[in-house]
Amino acid sequence: IVYGLKRSGNHAIINWIKSQERLRLYRNILPIRSFLNGRPKFSPPADFFSWLRPIMFHYNIPFADMLLKIMLSRQTVLVSLEDHELTVKPFKNIPCEVTSILIMRDIINLLSSRIRKASLVTRPETYPLENNAHMQRVLNLWKGYAREYLGLTNHLDNKVCILFNSWFSDIDYRRMVSSQLGIKFTDAGFSHVSERGQGSSFDGSKFNGNNQQMDILNRKSHLKDSERHLLNKLLQDPELLELNSMIIATESKAASGK
Questions:
Q1: I need a surface site. Which of 85, 201, 209, 258 has the fewest CB within 10 A?
Q2: Which of 118, 126, 131 minimizes the C-alpha distance to 223?
Q3: Cross-strand pairs, 178
Q4: Quick one: CA dihedral 188, 170, 231, 156, positive or negative?
């Protein structure tokens, strides 16, 4: 189960995992936009087989659950959640080990990307372009993810944390993540730029196959003046900056420990 905020590099990392592991992939299984538009709050976790059976089999067949168990014994099921609280658990009665993957991105590049995306689309619930309640929800979500990443909370079981900054810039870091996930490393899918979500907020998918040309770690410098003004206003939150500094410090410590 992958937890990540929108514009955190979720699609890039998921595509990279997909290139290394035989899996069944279900993206963004609980779209947050519908909840923010007034849909009732998230219902109790669904029974795993009851959720998966109609997706894999379009009609009822005898021994469906037994067939599912046989098929899944040879595959990994990967599902992703975007912009959800870490307390959201999508399933119950999962008949196998579950790995929780937490994707983090530093707050400056994350907000820069989300603000630019908000300038391109009209989705004020998920991509607000002002410091309102929706934006504060994003900031509070990031703080919660940061605390979990830093080990200050422990909402996720069997957790693998991935810092997008390090994943993008360091092949040794990607090797380490593959090891933590228990999969054989290959970088075959690393340079793929997904067209999902219209690709990068700044570059679209034009750097597909050559993602190192994307200035992913310096997005603030590409903002317009009005966008940078909003970013600077949001970054006046002392707790936000403190958590971000702690995350950057862990990244620097990991790099120096090679």
A1: 258
A2: 118
A3: none
A4: positive
Residue 128 and residue 133: Cα distance in Å, rounded? Answer: 9
Question: Residue 248 to residues 119, 141, 180: CA-CA distances in angstroms?
Answer: 27, 18, 21
User: Residue 79, SS3?
Assistant: strand
Expressed in percent and rounded to 5, the helix, strand and coil fractions of the chain are 50, 10, 40
Secondary structure of 143-175 as H, E, C letters: HHHHHHHHCCCCCCCCEEEEEHHHHHHCHHHHH
Residues in the chain: 258
Q: From CA 169, how far away is CA 217, in angstroms rounded? A: 9
Alpha helices in 8-106 (DSSP H): 10-20, 32-36, 48-56, 64-72
Q: What confidence score (pLDDT) does residue 213 get?
A: 46
Helix (H, G, I), strand (E, B) or coil at 37: coil
Task: Note the pTM of the prediction, 2 decimals.
Answer: 0.85
pLDDT band at 210 (very low <50, low <70, confident <90, very high): very low
